[in-house]
Amino acid sequence: MEYVSYLRVSTKRQGDSGLGLDAQREIIRYFYPNISREFIEVKSGKNVSERPILNEAIGYCLDRDAVLIVAKVDRLTRDTRDGLEILERLKGRIRFCDLPGEPDKFMLTLFFAFAERERELISIRTKGALKSAKERGQRLGGSMPWTDELRSLGVQKRIDDSKRNAENIRARSYAYELRKSGHTIREIVVKLNLCGFKTPTFRGNWSSGSVHRLLKE
C-alpha cells in the first residue's frame, strides 16, 4: 500500500518559514514512516475548490490506489460538507493521525463540525478585536495590536472556552478509540501529545493521570 501525505498551512508566511509544516510532518512520519510523496499547500481551510494541491493529491490517490495521510482533521478542511465530499471522493482511502484506524463517517462528521465551528470562532474573535481597536481610534492595518485589553474582552473568553471544550471532546474521542483498540495509557499519552492536544485545564501536555481522568469523564 502506498501512502502519500497532505500538509497545509494558512498563510504564505507560515509556508515560507516552515511554521506548522514541520510539526505536521513529524506527526505523519511517526504514524506512517513510509511516505512516498508529499503534497504541501498554502491556503485557508475554508474552500476546497480553491485548493489545487489538495485536488492534485486526491487525483494521485485515485490514480495510484494510494492512501492520503493528514496530520489532523482540520488540516484537510474546516468545512463539514467539503470534508464529507472528500471522504466520498477518496472512497475511504484517507487516514488522519488524530483519529485512529479507518475513518468512521460519524466520528469524522463530528471532527469536521468542530473544525468548522473553530473557524467561525476565529472569525468572530478577529472581527471583535478589529471593532474594539477601531472604536478606540487605533489605526488598523499591519500587525494586529493584541493588547491585554483586547485579550480580556468577554467575547475572547467565550471563544477560548468554546475552543477548549471542542478540543477536549476530540481528545476524549481519540483516547476512547485508542483504548478500545488495545493501547496502553502510556501509549495514549504519547499519541495525544504528539498530535498536539492540550489538557483542558492548564493547556499543557498530557500525563498518565490526566488521561485516566479524561477517560472517566
Please describe what this structure looks like.
The protein is of the alpha/beta class. The chain folds into two domains: about 5-95, Rossmann fold (3-Layer(aba) Sandwich), CATH 3.40.50; about 105-215, no CATH class. Helices cover about 60% and strands about 10% of the residues. It has ten helices and four strands; from the N terminus they run E-H-H-E-H-E-H-H-E-H-H-H-H-H. Helix 5 (about 80-90) runs antiparallel to helix 6 and helix 6 runs antiparallel to helix 8 (about 155-180).
Spatial gap, N to C terminus: 38 Å
Instruction: Give the % helix.
Output: 55-70%
| Coarse shape | globular
Biggest beta-sheet profile: 4 strands, parallel
Instruction: Please list the strands of the largest sheet in the order they lie side by side.
Output: 2-1-3-4
Find the structural class using helix and strand composition.
Answer: alpha/beta
Question: Roughly what is the average pLDDT, rounded to an integer?
Answer: 78
Order of helices and strands: EHHEHEHHEHHHHH
Whole-number tally of structural domains: 2
Q: What value does the Rg take, in angstroms?
A: 18 Å
Number of helices: 10
Approximately how much beta-strand content do the residues carry?
Answer: 5-15%
The count of DSSP E runs of length 2 or more, i.e. the number of strands, is 4
Given as residue ranges, the uncertain stretches (5+ residues, pLDDT < 50) are: 149-155
A few lines on this structure:
Helices cover 58% and strands 10% of the residues. The protein is an alpha/beta fold and 217 residues long.
